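for the writeup, i need someone to sanity check this before i put it in the appendix. the sequnce is what the collaborator sent (i think, or maybe the updated version? ugh). structure was predicted straight from it, no edits. if anything looks off just tell me and ill rerun, i have time this weekend
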Amino acid sequence: MELFTRKAWWLLTATWVVMIFGLSRAPYSSASSARFLSMVLDWLSISVLSQNLVPMNNLLRKSAHLMEYAVLAVFLYNSLKPVGNPSWSRKAAFWALVASGSYSITDELHQLFVPGRHASLFDCLIDTTGAFLGLFVLSKAIVMLQRKQTGVVAKTAKAFHEMG
């Protein structure tokens, strides 16, 4: 049973791409995210030495790259995989990874034209790594669900066989 139709997956993918584009248009800076991080830490009553705030902020920013591209790759995978086939599709995963990495490159090029932003090949690497990790986790989840379903089916069949 499919979670969403192919059209719904493409709509989610397009919406996510627009969200990434919108975030790339905004003049976010390291200082902006550092202020946000400081506010959150203050709200949680967590004190941090000022020299530790910079690495924490970098971790926050790079984690955001990982997560947004992990989600993009999962959406793309589900948009591309064969309909009605619950098994893992290497072909869909490959093209989802290629498309995610390619979009990352165009996103970084776009940032060249946004005041206060810059392009970074390192960010492309992080984005593509995030896409890979998203697909890796998805593949493990699919395999686990299939094993669970196969086990349930086998136990049910065995129970019916023993009854008759």
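The radius of gyration is 21 Å. The chain is about 80% helix and 0% strand.
thx in advance!!
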